[in-house]
């Protein structure tokens, strides 16, 4: 807040942004995202219903070692069985001869739903445990305050 009112420093709305990825999990199944986006472009957002499911969402970014500086790429990624309501969004990955490899600094985002913030955070970290690659790095303090 400033004396002149609120000022926005950054606003993340791209589907590749982790802030957006987790929010997509909160859209109710009856929400037609294509209709919502089309209504936005036509200036008719008031003509569509944007339904959300109750609960909370959290995501944890798994990055390549060294990110945001120089980082490794080309390492094999394995993703085991994910808990229910946990999703992996690929960012810096590529398929090479049928094997999933690291190909960027932010490799994947593991997002989860829960009835409480604590449950969503716990589920996201259980999802992180299902992902493995050499020199992977992630923060352990997401939503811990």
Summarize the structure.
This is Glycinamide ribonucleotide synthetase. The chain is α+β, with helices and mostly antiparallel strands and 145 residues long.
Helix and strand topology:
Elements: H1 18-24, H2 33-42, E1 56-64, E2 78-79, E3 86-90, E4 93-96, E5 99-102, E6 106-114, H3 117-129, E7 131-132, E8 136-137
Antiparallel strand pairs: 1-6, 1-8, 2-7, 3-6, 4-5
What class do helices, strands and sheet pairing give?
A: alpha+beta
Number of domains: 1
CATH superfamily: Phosphoribosylglycinamide synthetase, C-terminal domain
**Beta-strand level of the residues, as a percent range?**
25-35%
Tally of extended strands?
8
- Report mean pLDDT, rounded to a whole number: 92
Q: Output the strand order for the largest sheet.
A: 3-6-1-8
Q: Poorly predicted ranges (pLDDT <50, ≥5 residues)?
A: none
Which CATH first-tier class would you pick?
Alpha Beta
**Roughly how much helix do the residues carry, as a percent range?**
10-25%
Account of the protein in words:
By secondary structure, the chain is of the alpha+beta class. It has one domain: Glycinamide Ribonucleotide Synthetase, Chain A, domain 4, CATH 3.90.600.10. The chain has three helices and eight strands; from the N terminus they run ααββββββαββ. The chain has helices spanning 18-24, 33-42, 117-129; strands at residues 56-64, 78-79, 86-90, 93-96, 99-102, 106-114, 131-132, 136-137. Strand 4 and strand 5 (99-102) form a beta hairpin.
Features:
alpha+beta, Glycinamide Ribonucleotide Synthetase, Chain A, domain 4, four-stranded antiparallel β-sheet, 3 helices, 8 strands, globular
